[in-house]
Design brief:
alpha/beta, Rossmann fold, globular, binds S-adenosylmethionine
Length: 191
C-alpha cells in the first residue's frame, strides 16, 4: 500500500475500462453469495450483475431509518438489500464512478419500488458527501480497486458520523507475497 508501483490515474482508467465492459454471469455470483430470502425483492437486472466477493450484509447491523453509503454500488444488489432494511424512513446513497453502473442501480431500485436509493457519481477517494453524514458504510469488492486505499479509508472516516459503522467484503494481499510484475499487471489489478 505504501509503494506507488503504478500511477493512480492510469490504474483508475484500467478499472473504469474493466467495469464498463463487464459481462453478466447470469445469477451465478448472486446465488453463490446470497440466500434466497436475501434476494427476495431484488430485481433480476441487479442479481445478474452482482460483482461482489462476499456477503458482509449478513454481519451489517442495518437499522430502520439509517443513512447507508454503498461504496462502488455497481448494479445495485447491496444497495437494494440495504434499502429494504432501512425502510422508507432511511436512505441508501449508492456511489460509483461509472454512470452506466449508476443507471443500472437506479433502474433496479425503481423496479423494486424503492424511492430511498439515491445514486451519486463520484470517486471513493474523494467522496462527494459532507463530514459526519452517514450512519453506516457498506462496500463489496471495491476498496481493493483503489490505488490510494489510505485515502479511501480516510474519506470513510470523514463521512461517517461519530459511532458510525463500517462493514465491507473485500480482498487483501500481502504485497511481499506477489512479484511486482503481478502487482502491476492491469488484469490482476482490475480483476
Ligand atoms: C467489483 S465491482 C462491485 C460492484 C458491487 N459492489 C457488487 O457487489 O456487485 C466494483 C465497482 O466499483 C466501482 N469502482 C471502482 N473504482 C471506483 C472508484 N475509485 N470510485 C467509485 N467507484 C469505483 C466500479 O465501477 C464497479 O461498479
Amino acid at each position: 500500500m505504501t509503494k506507488d508501483l503504478m500511477h493512480s490515474a492510469e490504474l483508475k482508467d484500467l478499472v473504469r475500462e474493466a467495469y464498463s465492459s463487464v459481462v453478466s454471469d447470469g445469477d451465478a455470483t448472486a446465488t453463490r453469495l446470497y440466500a434466497e430470502d436475501e434476494l427476495a425483492g431484488v430485481p433480476r437486472s441487479a442479481r445478474e450483475f452482482a460483482l461482489g466477493v462476499g456477503n458482509h450484509l449478513r454481519y451489517a447491523d442495518i437499522q430502520l431509518g439509517e443513512t447507508i453509503l454503498d461504496i462502488g454500488c455497481g448494479a445495485g444488489i447491496d444497495s437494494i438489500i440495504a434499502a429494504h432494511r432501512t425502510g422508507p424512513a432511511g436512505r441508501v446513497l449508492a456511489l460509483d464512478f461509472l454512470p452506466e453502473m449508476l443507471e443500472r442501480t437506479a433502474s433496479a431500485a425503481a423496479e423494486a419500488g424503492l424511492d430511498n436509493v439515491e445514486t451519486i457519481e463520484g470517486d471513493m477517494e474523494a467522496i462527494p458527501l459532507p463530514d459526519d453524514s452517514v450512519d453506516h458504510i457498506i462496500s463489496n469488492g471495491v476498496i481493493n480497486l483503489s490505488p490510494r486505499k489510505t485515502r479511501t479509508l480516510a474519506e470513510c472516516t470523514r463521512v461517517l458520523r461519530p459511532g458510525g459503522r463500517f462493514c465491507v467484503s473485500d480482498f487483501t494481499i500481502d504485497e511481499e507475497d506477489l512479484p511486482p510484475e503481478v502487482l502491476t499487471h492491469p488484469a490482476a489489478w482490475a480483476g
